[in-house]
Design goal:
The chain has three helices and six strands. By secondary structure, it is of the alpha+beta class. A six-stranded mixed beta sheet has the order 2-1-6-5-4-3.
């Protein structure tokens, strides 16, 4: 199996589980690195447990996810995913997220996403 085929299978498993909000964790490496770009910080969240906790909070906002485009080159992949969100203020929005993945040794090892941070900020209550 080629690296591209393995990466594609990992991503298919991830997104199938992500849409159901279960079963996606199996393809995440223990030393997973996640970065959500907001242009202000260079924060990289490290570790599978950290990412699982981030997604536990995020999963309260999205109702569905669809892959609009997936480009795979060996261990690297670019995905445009479309999410249906329901924000705490009741606003429903469908939005695209650019997701850049790496895989290694049969697991997804990193994800760097770009999304509309202003929409999230405007529709999420401040604590």
């Amino acid at each position: 199996m080629t690296n591209s085929t393995t990466t594609k299978k990992l991503l298919e498993t991830y997104y199938r589980g992500f849409a159901k909000k279960e079963g996606w964790e199996s393809v995440i490496s223990d030393n997973f690195e996640f970065r959500a770009d907001n242009m202000e910080k260079e924060d990289i969240n490290k570790g599978k447990e950290t990412y699982v906790n981030i997604i536990a909070r995020f999963s309260r906002l999205y109702q569905n996810v669809r892959i609009k485009r997936m480009i795979i080159d060996g261990n690297n992949a670019s995905v445009i995913a479309n999410y249906d969100y329901i924000f705490p203020n009741g606003k429903h929005i469908s939005g695209d997220v650019a997701e850049f993945w790496t895989a290694k040794d049969g697991k997804l090892t990193s994800l760097h996403i770009y999304f509309d941070t202003l929409t999230f900020d405007k529709n999420t209550p401040k604590k």
